[in-house]
Amino acid sequence: MINIEEFISDVVCRATSELYGTSDNIQIQKTRKEFEGDYTVVVFPLLRASRKSPEATATELGEKIVASTPEIKSFNVIKGFLNLVVDTSFWAARFGEIIAKEDYGMAPASGRTIMIEYSSPNTNKPLHLGHIRNNLLGYSVATILKANGHNVIKVNLVNDRGIHICKSMLAWQLYGGGETPASSGMKGDHLVGKYYVEFDKHYKQQVKELIAEKGMSEEEAKRQAPIMLQAQEMLRKWEAKDPEVYSLWQTMNGWVYEGFDVTYKALGVDFDKVYYESETYLLGKSLVEDGLKKGVFFRKEDNSVWIDLEADGLDQKLLLRGDGTSVYMTQDLGTALSRFEENKLDDMIYVVGNEQNYHFQVLKLVLKKLGYEWSDNIFHLSYGMVELPEGKMKSREGTVVDADDLIADMVGTAREMSAELGKLDGVSEEESTKICEMVGLGALKYFILKVDPKKTMLFDPRESIDFNGNTGPFIQYTHARIRSIMRKAEEAGINTENYTEATLLPEEVELVKALADYPQVVRTAGEQFAPSVIAAYAYDLAKQFNGYYHDHSILKEENEAVRSLRLKLAEQVARVIRSAMSLLGINVPERM
After folding, report:
1. What is the pTM of this model?
2. Long-range contacts of range 87-91, CB-CB < 8 Å, 24 or more positions apart?
3. What is the pLDDT averaged over residues 325-335?
C-alpha cells in the first residue's frame, strides 16, 4: 500500500533536485484547514539555491510538480508556502487500497521485543482509581506496540513483600478474629485492605499516646510505636522464612490474588507473565554484593549499603538496609537484569506514577554504573495522578475510590443514562446488560486514555458517559449507527460488494484522507507511547462521519453507484473506529 507522505516527499524532492540541484532541508506538512490544498511545502530553505523570491520559487516549483505529476491537480502560493492539491482520483485509489487491506493500520513485524510492566499492585489493599489509570494505560500501550509490529511481553510485578504487607498481616492477627473472605462475604483484596486501614488507625493512636504520656517528639513516637516495632519484627521473621509468618503471608496473599483476578477480568486487562517481588529481591542482593566488589557501592558503619550519585547531580541512595533487608531499588535491579537476560529484550517500559520519577532515574544510572549498557533502553512511562471532584485519595486512611465499586457504578450510570435517552428500547435484558457493560467501561477507559499520561487528571464519572462530545459512548454510538445502516442495507438486498469507484464529493475525500491517516496515527502513538493520540483520532473520525451523515443520505440515495460508494465508505469508517478503539482496550457495540 502506498505511503502517502513518502509519495509526496518523493515528488517534491525530485522536482527540487531537477530545478535547483538539491533536495536538502525540504519541509512538507499537511495544509492548514483554512487554506486550499492537501500538503504544504515550505520553500524558504530553497531560496539560496533558487536565488528567487519565496513567491517566485514556490510558483516555479508548483508548476514543475503539476506538469510532471498527474496525481497533483493544482497548486496555490501563499507567501513562502506552496500548497499542493491532490487529485480526487488519487484519493479514490487510496480508498480502494484501504478496503483491500485486511489488517489495515497494522505494521509488519519489526523484529523488536519490548517488555511492558504495568499494574504492579501491593498485596495489602484492593485496586483503586489510580491503579485503573495504570492498568488501562499499560494495556493500551502494549496493544498499540503490537500494532506497530513489535513482539510485546506484558508483565505484572506484584509487590507481595515488605513492611506494608506485614502491617495488614499483623492487624489481621491482632484484630481479625479469624475472619476470612468466605466468613465475611468480602472479596479477598478488600478484606486485606480493611486490615491495612485498621493498622493505621491503631498506629496513629499509639503515636498520639506516646507524645502525650512520654513527651516524645512525633518522629520518635512513630519509630517507637509498639505496633510498628511488631510489624518490623514480622518482616525480619518473613525474610528468615519463619513458618508461622510465612504461612499467614501465603494465605492472605492468596485471598488478594483471587480478588485482583476478578478486577482485572472486569477491566479487560491481562498479562503474559507475573513476577513476584518475593522471588526477585534475592537476585537484587547478589547484584549489590557485585557492586560492592567493583567499588561502585559502599558500606556505612551501620552495615547498610549505598551508592553516591552526587557527582551525577543526585544524592546518596540506599540499596540495602543495615539489617540486610532489601529496599525497592534492590529488587528492581535484580528484576531488570533477569528480564533482559531471559527475554533478550530490546526495550523495557515501566508504567509507574510520576512520584517514582527519581527512582527510575536512579535505577538506570545504577545499572549503567554496574556496566549494563542496555540500561539506556529502559523507559519510565510516567503518568499523573487521578483526582476526583472531592480531591485526592489516601489508601491508608481508607479514602480511595475502589476499582470494583467504580466499575459497577460506571455500568449502572450507563444503564441509567441509556434508559433516559431511550437507547435500550426494544433490546432484550441480556443484550441490554452487555451493552451497558460495554458503554460503562468504554466511557471509563476513553475518559482516562484521552488525556496525555503526563497530566494529572480530574475524573468525573457522569461527564464521561455523555453520549455527545469527546467521550467513549459518542464514538461507540457512531459505530453502532453505521452498523445499523449496514444491517438495513443488507435487509433491503443492497449489495455493497458491487462497489465501483465513483467520483468522490469533497466531504468524501476528507473522510478518505482521515482513513488514510490511520497507519501514521498508529505509528505516532507507538513512538510516543500515547493512547491519547489514538483517542483523538477516533473522536475526530466519528465526528467527521456524523457531519457527513447529517448532510448526505446513504440508504435513500437513488444513484446505485453513489449509494454503494457511501455504504462502503461508512463500512470502512466503522472498521477503523473499531480497530482504533480496540487499541484503547474498548469494545464497540453492534447496536445501541
Report:
1. 0.91
2. 88/503, 88/504, 88/509, 91/504, 91/509, 91/512, 91/513, 91/516
3. 84
